[in-house]
Amino acid sequence: MKTALISSESGKDLKLILEIAKRMGLNFKQLSDEEIEDFGLIEAIRSGKTGETVNTEEFLKELEP
Questions:
Q1: What is the Cα–Cα distance from 28 to 18, expressed in whole angstroms?
Q2: Are 18 and 8 in contact (CB under 8 A)?
């Protein structure tokens, strides 16, 4: 299975693309704003993961004003 995410500022254009997908027999799902945010968070977590551990005490000291 292959997947593509398509976004558009134009609701009219997106509606046209979804209609074409429907006619072609493709499966699709429109994502809610919450689902889009979840994907963004997932990507941020993945890109921020380094595999390194952080010293908890030093980290907490950095948070102090």
A1: 8
A2: no
What tens digit of pLDDT does each residue of 38-52 get? 999 999 999 888 888
Spatial separation of the C-alpha atoms in residues 16 and 36, rounded to whole Å: 21
CA dihedral of residues 36, 37, 42, 46 (deg, nearest 10): 110
Distance in angstroms (rounded) separating the CA atoms of residues 18 and 13: 9
Confidence band, pLDDT 50/70/90 cuts, at residue 7: confident
DSSP 37: H
Three-state secondary-structure class, residue 2: coil
